[in-house]
Amino acid sequence: MRGDWGGTIDEITALLKNYFSRAHEPFDPGKTKIPLSVPSYGWEEVAEAMESLLSTWVTMGEKVFQFESMWAEYIGVKHAIMVNSGSSANLIALSVLSNPVLEDRIKPGDEVIVPAVTWSTSIFPIVNVGAVPVLVDVDLETYTINVEQITAAITERTKAIMPVHLLGFSCDMSRIMEIAQAYDLFVIEDCCEAPGATYKGKKVGGFGDLGTFSFFFSHHISTIEGGMIVTNNDEYAELAKVLRAHGWIRELNRRREIASQYPDIDERFLFVNLGFNVRPTEIQGAFGIHQLKKLEQFIEHRRENANYWINRLSRYSDVLMIPQQEEEAGSRHVWFGFPITVKPEAPFTREALVRFLESRQIETRPIMAGNLSEQPALQLIAHRVVGTLPNSRLVMRRSFFFGNHHGIAERERTYIANCFDEFLMKKDR
Questions:
Q1: Which of 110, 113, 205, 380 is the most exposed place for a label (fewest CB within 10 A)?
Q2: Contact in structure between 337 and 355 (CB atoms under 8 Å)
Q3: Is the CA virtual torsion 343, 346, 349, 353 positive or negative?
Q4: Distance of CA 216 to CAs 223, 225, 270, Å?
Q5: 50-286 domain in CATH 3.40.640.10?
Q6: Tens-place pLDDT, residues 56-92
Q7: Which residues are bridge partners to 198 per DSSP?
Q8: What are 358's strand-pairing partners?
Q9: Catalytic residues, which ones?
Q10: Apex 114 CA angle, 110 and 117, nearest 5
């Protein structure tokens, strides 16, 4: 922590420790709600944020930069640039690759290939930079982009691929990078739901030209709102810093060199490019410093839960599509939630199963925004759809997920599996 607050901060910290140590209400099956997410922070994050509030340094500063350095080391990349949300991270990543300072860049009318099943802000930033999203189908085993459909989508206008590591499942990055190299395409990895996921021993986000992450309140770790852009490219990193804060040079490594070219302009207010204001706060940085230390234990807890449900629910594979743990050596899913797809031949609907689970206090939700090609917002923008998207349409109608997080312990996960038994045993099998 920064500052010398003597007894004041010590007293506040003691109070926070006591508050967060209070026992939670015991789980009461059928009465206690099992939510999609629970808060991931404790007294450490609040005390660090309180220190920033007391210091009055609450805008982007040292704690943000410390978290950036920690995140870059964790992912295994050279640069990490924090912003105020994962959505903004996608916007900045696309804005970097379409910026006029780059000779080879995404230009208006160029196409970016993206899975049809994702969150809206995987697609909207493509439109924001004047490019055209091209929606392709997903794989039903991992809900991630179907790599075979990528090549079918490529035209002379294709400029980039934006794979989304949906629900914490890693995409087939070997094949995606091979395609990108063969066709000279940018790769922007949307890792907003997959912090810490690995593919063949390497963390996602470190494969493409740029990667993006989200630290929204309901994600694996949280800075309340928050996002991160990662890259190994020095030029992209510097450009991302410019774009996140007004287009000025304040955070650049080369700021003095650049300022010397414009001696008549105060370097604090020297603008060299376009820019947004999507900076994070020190409060977000304060949370991130401590949240990252907890991420691995959160991931292992989610994986333990997932293994349990896979073993318990696999008996219903004739009517349910049950996800599996990864088979690729060195790969690791991090389980944003636990997805289920009701097979078309099942003697019940998704809605019937969801209603039953909700009646038993198990919260559910659709798979992100479903098939984006069916969302009315897509009628407002230029886009292209490859094929009939049969898997994406199935996900839209028959898939959902329930929570998988550190707040679900042995009693809760057993209760969830028991509820599936109760529902499915009643059906005509």
A1: 380
A2: no
A3: negative
A4: 6, 5, 32
A5: yes
A6: 999 999 999 999 999 999 999 999 999 999 999 999 9
A7: 203, 332
A8: none
A9: 219
A10: 150
